[in-house]
Amino acid sequence: MITTQDKELLAKKGITEAQIAEQLACFQTGFPFLKLDAAASIEKGILAPDAEEQKAYLAAWDAYKNTDKTIVKFVPASGAASRMFKNLFEFLSAEYDKPTTKFEQAFFDGIRNFAFYDDLNVACQRTAGKDIPGLLEEGNYKAVVAALLETAGLNYGALPKGLLKFHKYPEGPRTPLEEHLVEGALYAANKSGKVNVHFTVSPEHRTLFKALVDEKAAAYARKYGVDYNISFSEQKPSTDTVAADMENKPFRDNGKLLFRPGGHGALIENLNDLDADVIFIKNIDNVTTDAQRGDTIRYKKVLAGILLDLQERAFEYLKALEVGGAELEPIVEFIEKRLCVKLPGSYDSAVLRAVLDRPIRVCGMVRNEGEPGGGPFWVGNPDGTQSLQIAESSQIGPDDLPLMRSATHFNPVDLVCGMKNSKGVRFDLRRYTDPSTGFISSKSSGGRDLRAQELPGLWNGAMAKWNTVFVDVPITTFSPVKVVQDLLRPQHQ
To answer: β-strand 71-76 against 36-39: which pairing, if any?
Structure first.
């Protein structure tokens, strides 16, 4: 089944034949649903620290920052923004010429409020010979949209979100990349003022990201009195997955195996390559303006303070277990109450050690206000424990749908991750994934249907065997931009 040409391609990508066989077997068998036990909620797996506790966590983080520890802000920023403009692409190809749907009307009603308005005005003059008011007056709405999305104009339809102008300021508009630099300066600078920010980008956009950093970073460094260390990485070719045809055989295009990117779960490899003590993770589009940023900064620090507290305790207990003769009761209480792992009926010190010796992530969770996506649940594990997991809707079986609907909280807004063990050695994050939590979707290539396989999601199966702690955070810390109209929401104005 594997040809000489296939072998050359696999070698180039760094993928083994065994991995291909495993992926093809998953197409045959599918992926099992998670064993959900209950939805996590306040007091049942989601912490809600009061003002005094928050104060202590903030102080702990500020003290930690004032050391030489390596803190990194990790920002997944690979995807193109095409989905953000899906409705506008549909308008371009529609048979009608005037904005008809609610979405189209809202776009044109709010057009002056977009941070990219001035750029778009110039692009319209270049591509259509008139400014936006002139084009709208003559009813040429599509020329405005074409100037926004197409290559001859601003090319926003093909650029990544990180490079689009999101927010207006008196001194000029800002992109999400710049907002992340600002955030990093406000909570991730160490004693010497160094701020490490790492973006995962697509190969075709890397030069553009680098150019924007070269243009903008120095001004933000001066403004906030910090020294930026900004780095980039790309998804590794070894994390691509083979596509299958409708009979679950390898999909071939002109005889060549077709591979597809493994989804954002592939980024666990990029995370694993970073040498850091603490890593903050947040998506590129989840940013807000200076005026609205107070809660975001405060709760980032609170989450980090909670992480430090948990780590310190876990390391102490590990040490005690290694020496031997430790009293097990307080350790069990810590694991069950603080680390949110329910132990099986029978356990010994080896089980406790195994639970304590894992990477820890503290996740900020917002109340579910009807946004699409997964949520936090108690999940049964093969080792007899129960732990907290973030489950996507694709991982939840039909029998558990009522449970899903009862979830009070939504996917994490923010993650803060402890990357080293009690000896100060980096965890190998690849050991803490659950390969059985990938999923299969239907796609097409060249007009032919195919089945594609995504690796376990970054905060789903890719971190399934971490110790996970959920913290209730305000909705003000969550302002993703899924569609262009989101930029008209108060968080972005």
So the answer is: unpaired
